[in-house]
Amino acid sequence: MMEIHDAKGADSRFPGLKEISRRYMNDFIAEIKEILEGIEVELVDLEMEPDNTEHLDSIFCSFDAIRGLAGLLHDAVSVRISDASKDLIEILRKYGAPAGKSAINMLMFSAGFIRKIIDSAEIVNDPLFIGEVEQHISNIRKLTEDIILEIRQPEGRKARIGEILVAQGAMDYSDVEDVLRKQSSTFSRMKFGEIVLKEKKADVADIIKAIRLQKVRNSGASDQYVKIPLERLDQIIGIIGNISNIFDSVRDEAVLRFGSNDAVTAEVSKAFGMIQDVKSILRELRMVTLQQTFRKLTRLACTIIEENHLEVRFSTMGENIEVDKEIADNVVSPLGELIKLLLEKAYSEQKDDMCIGSIEVVAYEEDDSVHICITGDRTVDIAAFRSDVRFAEVSERLSELKCSLTIDDMDGEGTRISILIHR
């Protein structure tokens, strides 16, 4: 079979071959475009049903088909993108892991890069575009490694910063072992991350990310749960609240009639305390995960990014962290406003900078609080950010939810907006 790239030299010997080759190429391109449209539909379905393996299987087959067609077109870049995307899907299928937002975003970006190549083959000669593709493939590899590390984490064993740094490619095992030896020294009271930073074995950004990942992965629980409709739970909480008020009055009356040391007063006080315990337990049952909150936030952020034609990647982590349902429902809007403000201040004003930016939202538990951090890889004028009337309004709304808001420039490494939710 004649290779496409040999067609030019064979034109004089085989009249019409050039036209046949062009027709085949156009057919291949048209088929790839059709497959990409199918991938986009499947990604939407996967967003709605992240546990549905049929969607994953279909997307895997689609990237496999694109890989084959791209090979016939001698499109090495699309082949590499397809291979990386297939590897990611294969890991999700192999371990039965649900397709999270990061995975769906990566597959969506893969389809976008391939579409750009199909629409304009000359783009592969653009060093900037190729640099973006290389970064994208690297991001897919890191995500795949993170998924493997999280799935293989032994039950009951805490995630370690060193292991996370190795999995991310930020450190070698030999460096980790060296740091551990120094940390175990009786003369050293420094933490693992402090030693790594002091000896410049990893960047501060990598260390911070590893610490956040450690907090997220170690916040999981192995308790069993039963489902209770929130409407019914709120009704029970209301009834218990009324009973609590009644017993409060009965307790006061018992003290007046019989005195604080009387047996009847003691039993009433004990019953009142038990009701308060039940009330606290019911409030804990009202906790929900941040999954729906982050899903809404992702759609909002991606809409803003698309409408403003920004080159920014958005991702979330810590969807399984639990907060009160009222906070989960009402914190979406303030978070969305903060992300919109960050995009406006840090990214839309730097359109000449062709590097793809990134914003990550991470939730984790610490002590008796939940932290939600919005981290961007570009800096802003912190004073100007705080003085913006929208920032003040968001701060006030979060305060009503008993949440505090801070912002810092991460020592010039980017912008971090931190929301502390008090339980």
Summarize this structure as a short list of keywords or feature phrases.
423 residues; alpha+beta; Four Helix Bundle (Hemerythrin (Met), subunit A); two-stranded antiparallel ribbon; 17 helices; 63% helix; disordered N terminus
Structural description of this entry:
This protein is an alpha+beta fold. The chain has four domains: 4-151, Four Helix Bundle (Hemerythrin (Met), subunit A) (Up-down Bundle), CATH 1.20.120; 161-217; 230-285; 288-422, 2-Layer Sandwich (Heat Shock Protein 90), CATH 3.30.565. Helix content is 63%, strand content 10%. A five-stranded mixed beta sheet has the order 2-4-5-7-6, with helices on both faces. A two-stranded antiparallel ribbon has the order 1-3. A hairpin with a 2-residue loop joins strand 4 and strand 5. Helix 13 packs parallel to helix 15 (332-347). The longest helix is centred in the N-terminal third of the chain and has 32 residues, at 17-48. The protein is elongated, with a radius of gyration of 28 Å. Residues 1-17 have low confidence and may be disordered.
